[in-house]
From TrEMBL:
It comes from Natronomonas pharaonis (strain ATCC 35678 / DSM 2160 / CIP 103997 / JCM 8858 / NBRC 14720 / NCIMB 2260 / Gabara) (Halobacterium pharaonis). CDD domains: AdoMet_MTases. SUPFAM superfamilies: S-adenosyl-L-methionine-dependent methyltransferases. Keywords: Methyltransferase, S-adenosyl-L-methionine, Transferase, tRNA processing. GO terms for biological process: tRNA methylation. It holds the Pfam family GCD14. GO terms for molecular function: tRNA (adenine(57)-N1)/(adenine(58)-N1)-methyltransferase activity; tRNA (adenine(58)-N1)-methyltransferase activity. Residues 68-214 form the tRNA (adenine(58)-N(1))-methyltransferase catalytic subunit TRM61 C-terminal domain. This is tRNA (Adenine-N(1))-methyltransferase TrmI.
Amino acid sequence: MLVVRGNREFLLEPGATQETDLGVLELPEDIEPGTTVETHLDESFEVRRLRGPDLFDHLERTGAPMMPRDIGLVVGHTGVAAGDRALDAGTGTGVLAAYLGRLGVEVTTYERDPEFAEVARENMETAGVADNVTVETGDIAATIDDLKGPFDLITLDTGDAPEVVAQADDLLASGGFIATYSPFVETARACAEAAREAGLDDVETLETIQREMDFDDRGSRPSTAGVGHTGYLTFARFLPSLE
């Protein structure tokens, strides 16, 4: 559960106790989202259900997670939905896998670092998607021959993504998508070239740049603060010929 008061936010399991600067808070075992609870000093907090954007702020990080704007592009561009199967590699914190799991997608995600993989498993529990998301420890490129497709979506955030893209037609369902994420355009180009050489269709690389608007008495303009660039997303689709 997410427990909130103003700019104070923390995760707390039902039945757990939390010390705060406003007193000690004991969360009942049968607590429901939307309930107001009080500390022993009679200070009120609201209990909320953890939602998608909260994952980005509250999951334990083992690296820089994919930004919500890029996750939104993956979901919107591929149309991945409940009942689909997704193969993911480069789990890291697991934000993308958790988002997909919350959509009802069956996700198998690979993380090379055993410690990172264990953190990701705990994060899936926190996100409430442990039943939908399986975190495997290993290198997807080394185990690709043992994977049992087909998958409706493959998402990659790894340095060796082009190697996997080259074999995506053996893993994807007809009409399925592969999406690779890279902070460097060289890797994005390599993925696009590998997709074309593999005979995949609708190959394109996109950069999502998002700017917040500032409104004040002088006028309105895009904010000059923040980072516009996050990474490059390369998409391709498996559309087998009927010939």
